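From the methods appendix. Each design record in this collection lists the tokenized structure first, followed by the designed amino acid sequence. Records were kept in a plain field format so they could be parsed without special tools. The example shown here is representative of the layout used throughout.

RECORD:
FOLD TOKENS (326 positions):
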């Protein structure tokens, strides 16, 4: 079948290749931004905790200084009687008892002074920690700003290609979908032939948590892909998988890169429903295994959550969020 002419000088096949590359770059930039945004959120929380500790240290120091000052005044006044200590000694029935009280008061004042010194040191440490935390937030804000700009620049390029695609006629669009389907089928067959995927489509039993995560993810089918979205009305790829496992009672990292880095890995030929399939060399995309060689995923901008063949994108590997091997 001859390739229909594409828009301008590009064929439909060339447009599909350019589109696939831009989808990959867009998702890479989007996940990079999501990662910096998550770190910024964590650093802001850490800065808030550091500031709270500093406020507590300041309050404790103020209390300690007040108590030290009161003990010093009692010493000077002779335990707040208003009578000089030498006169008290002459009037006292038991001068030794008076000396003992004075000794105890002096020791208490010394102990309180030592406490004030410790509180002062603590306040200084907390002040330094709060300053470092604020500086870390400022650095992360600058990084997040750069990542957001990079993401938006890629998005602009993607929009241009999508505009070209929107000008295709019915025959060209049909050919585009046929090419995309053929490429996916070929990749899926290659994966089966390699032995990395069970050709029978047999499905292992999921864990209880894996079943809950998958059931929840499947209920999101049809909802649109939106960058940075975590539901309930839209999702990006890792927004879908992280929320699905959250609803199953397990917190996992927000981004596909961190899911790949932190979660226990399993081979593709040992997949069971609920496991996460990580895609591309940079771990920039993720879907959830649904069994039978398919994944449920939020594929890309302009699409919706749906079931696809596992090899719709080049798989890097798989992880198991609940970590169990059974």
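DESIGN:
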């Amino acid at each position: 079948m001859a390739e229909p002419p594409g828009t301008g000088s590009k064929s439909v096949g060339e447009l599909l290749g350019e589109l696939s590359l831009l989808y990959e770059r867009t998702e890479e930039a989007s996940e990079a931004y999501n990662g910096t945004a998550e770190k910024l959120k964590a650093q802001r929380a850490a800065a808030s905790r550091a500031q709270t500790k500093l406020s507590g240290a300041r309050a404790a120091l103020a209390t300690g200084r007040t108590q030290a000052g009161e003990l010093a005044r009692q010493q000077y006044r002779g335990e707040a009687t208003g009578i000089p200590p030498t006169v008290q000694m002459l009037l006292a029935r038991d001068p030794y008892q008076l000396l003992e009280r004075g000794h105890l008061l002096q020791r208490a004042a010394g102990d309180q002074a030592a406490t004030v010194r410790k509180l002062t040191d603590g306040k200084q440490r907390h002040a330094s920690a709060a300053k470092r935390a604020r500086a870390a937030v400022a650095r992360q804000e600058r990084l997040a700003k750069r990542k957001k700009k990079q993401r938006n620049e890629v998005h602009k390029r993607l929009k241009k290609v999508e505009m070209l695609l929107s000008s295709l006629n019915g025959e060209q669009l049909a050919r585009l979908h046929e090419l995309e389907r053929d490429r996916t089928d070929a990749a899926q067959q290659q994966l089966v032939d390699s032995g990395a995927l069970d050709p029978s489509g047999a499905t292992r039993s999921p864990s209880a948590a894996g079943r809950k995560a998958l059931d929840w993810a499947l209920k999101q089918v049809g909802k649109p892909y939106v960058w940075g979205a975590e539901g309930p009305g839209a999702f990006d790829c890792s927004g879908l998988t992280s929320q699905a496992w959250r609803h199953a009672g397990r917190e996992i990292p927000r981004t596909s890169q961190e899911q790949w880095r932190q979660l226990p890995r399993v081979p593709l030929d040992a997949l069971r429903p609920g496991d996460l399939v990580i895609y591309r060399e940079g771990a920039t995309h993720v879907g959830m295994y649904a069994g039978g060689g398919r994944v449920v995923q939020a594929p890309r901008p302009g699409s919706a959550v749906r079931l696809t063949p596992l090899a719709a994108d080049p798989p890097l590997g798989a992880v198991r969020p609940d970590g169990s091997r059974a």
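APPENDIX NOTE: The chain is about 60% helix and 10% strand.
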